[in-house]
Amino acid sequence: MAPNSPEPRPPVNILMVDDHPPNLMALEATLEPLGESLVRARSGREALAEVEKREFALILLDVRMADMDGFETARHIRQHARARETPIIFLTAIHTETHYARQGLSLGAVDYIYKPFDPDLLRDKVRSFVALHRERRARQVAEAALKTKDLILGVLGHDLRSPVTAICASADLLLRDEEAVDRREALTRINSSARRMDRMVRALVDYARSYLGDRMPVHDAPARMDDICRRVAADVLVSHPDRNIVVSVDGDVEGRWDSDRVEQAITNLVVNAADHARGDVRIEVAGHSDEVVVAVTNDGGRFPAALRASLFTPFRKGDAGDRGLGLGLFIVREIVVAHGGSVTLASGADEALTRFVTRWPRRSATMRP
Asked: pTM of the entire structure?
């Protein structure tokens, strides 16, 4: 096979019905060059038996047959769920009057051809209906895949996240109990693990949407970037109580963004920074004329040079001890790009720190006229 040649497609079934064996042989010789699977039936009853066994892309049906004529055969075929919409072409050498053609077409036939037929013309007609059948099947497969995708995303996004949310809420409630001091360490660990699991499930949902061709959903509303970043800092401190997260703000930091999505992206960056930092984690928020810039910096050392080229590639982890899925930076980029912005690793290869800079247009790309 040539390097760029299309993959061969499996043949489709074509049913040929005629009670005269020489006619079947002539029909088979005409259609054989198409390379499809040709099935013979020598009576209407044999045709119905074949329809029971398999799906056909097209049925070529002789009108005049001894036990059951073509019209009656077509009526019975149409009662079968699998063949209710299968194209039927009637072939006849006897019933050439117009009212017979009308009768055949009233039964759902797509054509009524008189014998002797032109072989090239018949092949072209059959080729067209085979192509339509393949297109219809491809659409059905695509629709089934979409339904499956929606089911998977529904399970990941709702069914799996619901118990995790309940765990987080219960742990938060117990942590507020002043008498639970002796259990605080265990509760903090439960809360941290549940939140990490929630981020992983959410990342998988977002990755599945991107992989299957969907855009990252973004719902804009007025928001303040400093409020978002302070919420992120408070949440990350729950799982990293030994870290110091400093938020600094400069200028006007209001805009229109999807606060939940922005919070998700900034959280991914801050969690990564807190995991690797030796000292403070800094979140710097700066307002500019048409965008707000958020930079997240940690002093955990140089970002691994080997990972720079595949920085935003899904399922690539920063180090062997990473407890995530390797989707964090990929999701960050998807969210920022969905807002019309950008994310870069701003620290140089020789710098003893890691600094990610995200740029958020004040008005998200989805809201632009």
From this structure: 0.48
